[in-house]
Every structure is written in structure tokens, then in C-alpha cells.
Amino acid sequence: YQKGIKHLVGGMCETDYSGYPDCRSNTIQAVQQSINLGMDYDLIIHTPLMHLSKGEIWKLSHDLGCMDTVRKLSHTCYNGVKGGCGECNACILRERGYQNFLSSKH
Predict the structure, then answer these.
(1) Among residues of the chain, what percentage have pLDDT more than 70?
(2) pTM above 0.90?
């Protein structure tokens, strides 16, 4: 609010819904509405990945030329382990999507 930001972009997607109800589109819309009730202007939360599979997200990062950056500098680990723990559901979903992307390239 103090910076006048009117747009937020989030990387959540509904394919995480099985274990993460906070990633659902209706949850994000409710959060946006709640925030806007306390603001003088509307804030818009954009979720461009919301309806993509994890494999499609990896393909998009590849097509945009940023896959190495995403692979090396981001993580989704709910245990907070840099690079991922490889055991939590978020890490498993991410890796499964990456493997789906790799297998679809052939």
C-alpha cells in the first residue's frame, strides 16, 4: 500500500490443490477481495500459472529461456530447504512435473 503497488504476480497453480488448498483460484480471489476491502484502490493478484500443469510450467520456463534460472534459483519446498528436500509433497510435485517436461521433449 505504501508503495502504491496495484498488481501482484504469484506463481501458484491449482495442480498443487491436492495438498495445498491455498493455491486454489477461489482462495486467491478471496484473498484479493479481503485485501481490497481495506484499501483505497483495488489490488489485482495475477496468477498466470494457475491452470497449467507442472510440466507445462517447466515448458514455459524453457520457452522463455529462463529454465536454468528457475531450476537453480527457485524452490517450492515447504520444509524451507534451499534446493528442495526432495521429500515433501511440493518437492515431489515439482520434480514430477520436471520429469514430465523432459519426457515430453522426446
Answers:
(1) 95
(2) no
